[in-house]
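Re: [ENG-882] Designed sequences occasionally contain unexpected residues at chain ends

Forwarding the minimal case from QA. Structure tokens:
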């Protein structure tokens, strides 16, 4: 504070807003065990073909750059094989069973939320698919982002006005507005909170079907702001 009764006030403020998610991501694993590696891989590939054919019947397409925001996409993004083993209690060693397991990791992205029931039914019909998680997401350009960021700025102005009033002054103008951490201190940026539905929850399609009920997402905007005040005086002086 200087002789003219001016002071700089630095504040951090936050705003939150619940919005409907833009898309769902289903992550799962197709798994087959057979007497040979070749047979296990063949079975896994056949299951992937059947599943993606059913998804294509709903309008789904393979995920690629040009299909980023299509209503329904899938990606079989990794595969692996492993020898099946068991613990021999007599020898205390891990022994081969002679069986081989082949797995294919699959990701299904649903952007048309009116399709979630149909997609859930398709996934439930494929016994070789184990769904690990269903997560809900908000796009970086969701129309609610400007609203929540503007609300964070208004919250910062209100906080600065409270501080200035407690010192007998008023907020004169804004010096700086930045994402949290850019004016110093810890870096806490605004971000959505992703809600996940655990695999294996029941739905209308039957037990073990992944729950595809859209979960509202919370957008969080956190900013730092610096304001110049006038007429400030220390209480009691």
């Amino acid at each position: 504070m200087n002789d003219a009764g001016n002071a700089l006030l630095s504040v951090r403020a936050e705003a939150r807003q619940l919005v409907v998610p833009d898309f769902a991501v289903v992550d799962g694993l197709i798994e087959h065990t057979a007497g040979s590696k070749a047979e296990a891989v063949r079975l896994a590939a056949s299951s992937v073909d059947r599943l993606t054919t059913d998804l294509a019947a709903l309008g789904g397409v393979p995920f690629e750059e040009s299909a980023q925001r299509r209503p329904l996409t899938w990606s079989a993004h990794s595969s692996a094989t492993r020898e099946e083993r068991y613990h021999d209690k007599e020898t205390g060693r891990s022994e081969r069973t002679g069986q081989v397991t082949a797995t294919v990791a699959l990701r299904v992205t649903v952007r048309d939320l009116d399709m979630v029931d149909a997609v859930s039914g398709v996934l439930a019909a494929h016994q070789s698919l184990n769904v690990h998680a269903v997560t809900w997401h908000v796009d970086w350009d969701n129309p609610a982002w400007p609203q929540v960021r503007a609300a964070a700025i208004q919250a910062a102005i209100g906080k600065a006005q409270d501080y200035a009033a407690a010192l007998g002054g008023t907020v004169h103008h804004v010096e700086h507005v930045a994402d949290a951490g850019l004016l110093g201190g810890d870096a806490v940026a605004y971000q959505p909170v992703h809600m996940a539905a655990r695999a294996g929850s029941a739905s209308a399609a039957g037990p073990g079907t992944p729950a595809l009920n859209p979960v509202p997402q919370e957008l969080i905007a956190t900013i730092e702001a610096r304001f110049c005040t006038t007429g400030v005086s220390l209480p009691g002086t």
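QA comment: On inspection the terminal residues look reasonable. Confidence is low (pLDDT under 50) at residues 196-207. Proposing we downgrade this to a documentation issue.
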